[in-house]
Amino acid sequence: MTEPGSASQYQTGTWRTEKPIIDLGKCNKCGLCYLFCPDVAIEQNNDGYFKVNLFYCKGCGICATECPKRAITMVEDKE
After folding, report:
1. Residue ranges per domain, the chain?
2. Distance from C-alpha of 19 to C-alpha of 79, rounded to nearest angstrom
3. Is the pLDDT assigned to residue 28 strictly greater than 70?
4. CA angle (57 as vertex; 55, 58 as ends), nearest 5
5. Which one is predicted more confidently, 66 or 6?
6. What DSSP string runs through 12-33?
7. What's phi and psi for 44, nearest 5 deg?
8. 1 pLDDT exceeds 60?
């Protein structure tokens, strides 16, 4: 039975064919990847950089498209 507000418990990244890789050397911590991610799969670390939570990431590539520094590259997910 599915309970209201329980969506965060369900892994949604299992059908991904590509995953985003963030080059921290290029990242300027602008947060556009976080703002545009439709799955809320981008999280901010304590140091201000962003990371991808692959539990939720579906590999849509919107984060890579929106990144003004081109710090995010989509690569084949071989898992």
Report:
1. 14-76
2. 10
3. yes
4. 120
5. 66
6. --TT-SEEEEE-TTT-----HH
7. -100, 135
8. no
